[in-house]
Amino acid sequence: MSRGSQSHKPGFGAGGLAGLPRGEAMKLGSLFMLALLFTFFVLWGLRDQTRKPVLPLPPIPSRVDKGIDIKVEVIPWRPPRRRLNSIIRQSTRADRVRSYPEAINILAPLVADRPYTHFLLDEEYEDVGGFALVPIEDLLDPARSLEFRAEPIEVKGVLREWRSVLPSAFELDEKVFKRPLWLAELEVEGHPVQALLLGKPPDSIVTPGRIYKVRGVFYRLRDILKRVDENGREVEEYVTVPLLLAKSVAPVVPLHLVEKLPPDLKDRIKDATDYEDLPPPPQADENFFVLAGYALAHKNRIPGPDDEVIFVKGRGVIENPEEYRLKFVETRGEIVYMNWEGFEYPDMRPEDAPTLGYWHCIISHSQPSINAPISLLIPWAELPEGIGIGAVVRARGIYFRVHAYENRKGQLSLTPLVVATMDPWPDPLKPTTIADPFVVGAIIAFGLVTLLLVGMLVRDRRRAARLEEKLREERVRRRHASGMNLDALLPSGEEGRRE
Q: 36: which residues sit within 8 A by CB, 6+ positions away?
């Protein structure tokens, strides 16, 4: 066979890649990489353009949002203090045992008739929130009682007694006070304080043993006989007790800093399946306040480097809550819901608790049907920049319990509650799976581009093969025309191809 008649068999002409020359293979590989890079950058740009922006944090409700009309015309609080001080004496025990019917019948009607909101919105007491927080030591000091006479104050302590009393028990005019009143006795830092409620009693059940706050005006110091424990036996002795004419008695947010979790906390926690009806919200669950106090006491310091952290994914956080209870967990996803949930306690003020609410965030994975969305409860107000609805974050906290609520469709939905112990931080990588639209689009686009390149190369190879065959046949025809014996040059089996 002459050199001019030799030709290689085209690999693509035969329908495969076998026998592809090295130069063309390198060309195909280069085109393949260029197509891959082009597809990636185009889709990445489209992804950045269609990504939802991170929304700013919702506002924390103010006093106006809580229904207090700040435009009401407030009558300044101007009780006759000089006259009251001229009547009341309390330097000695005899003075404090005495009753002063004239004085209480001057002050009590003024307190009873004054709207509660007038105390809150009085400009003279605006800097103390309407009612001043007075240390119990100052209230018990007879020398300072003149300063506090008829002043709006607030005390907070453990409720020891709550009972109904007749107005005559305090020598009040029964023509003015026609109904029984309520008397609360609190223990404030080991000292008893009495409050005669002249306003509306609380809507909720008053429970002795819980912490309550009393808001009213200071009336006087009085000495009363009380049973006290002295060397293992009870005796009666006079105890000095501050008496307030109260406008409100309300429970205090049961939240304080906790260094260690109670050993029985795990046994006290109930999941949604333990309730016949919907479980209480977190702010109505005392176990939540314990966890929140623990998280606040160790904010951004737990979990530590030696603590085990479980990455929660799938439905196990709902189906097997006992496996995760009170353990450190981590989640990752997009914030799809975020709202400030204020504690539903009356007359809240910053001094009541380390925080007066929490951020409720729902962190959703890209496949919520497979991975349960996580309800993250963040018990502090300040959050890092970039945290909001639409942000992709990582978060760590303590697994609390399974909660249940009715969704917009009226169906029951279950969600795991996690109390955050650290600020959530933005995750630079968006969580993706095979079902992510970007991944699906990238796969489809890359496949189309690859098929296009392969098709173009196959087409070119086939054209080149046909052209080479025609050229070969033309050379054979010319040699035959010149009288050359071409049968010897044709490979076996190719006689039929010569015209």
A: 446, 449
Beta bridge partners of 329: 310, 397
Q: What is the DSSP letter of 229?
A: E
Q: How far is CA 74 from CA 66, 80, 94, 114, 427, in A?
A: 18, 18, 39, 10, 51
- Per-residue tokens: 452: 């296009």
Q: Is the dihedral of CA 334, 340, 344, 349 positive or negative?
A: positive
> Are the C-beta atoms of residues 404 and 374 closer than 8 Å to each other?
no
* Model confidence, pTM: 0.70
Give me the chain's average pLDDT, please.
Answer: 83
Q: What is the pLDDT of residue 39?
A: 66
Sign of CA dihedral 313, 315, 318, 320: negative
Residue 386 has φ and ψ, to the nearest 5°, of: 95, 0
> 253 with 353: CB under 8 angstroms?
yes
What are the helix (H) ranges across 59-159?
81-87, 93-97, 101-113, 116-121, 136-139, 145-148
The token pair at 28 is 């195909």
State the DSSP string of 272-334.
GGG-SSPPPPGGG-HHHHHHHHHHHHTTTT-S-TTS--EEP-SSHHHH-GGGTTT-EEEEEEE
Q: Residue 246's Cα: distance from chain center in Å?
A: 36
The more confident residue out of 30 and 304 is: 304
Write the DSSP symbol of residue 261: -
Provide mean pLDDT across the span 467-471.
Answer: 79
At residue 416, φ and ψ (nearest 5 deg) are -80, 140
User: pLDDT tens-digit profile of 110-123?
Assistant: 999 999 989 999 99
d(CA 406, CA 403): 11
Task: Give the position of tokens 């054209």.
Answer: 463
- Name the strand (E) or helix (H) holding 471: helix 437-481
Give me the percent of the chain exceeding a pLDDT of 70.
79
Higher pLDDT: 453 or 244? It is 244
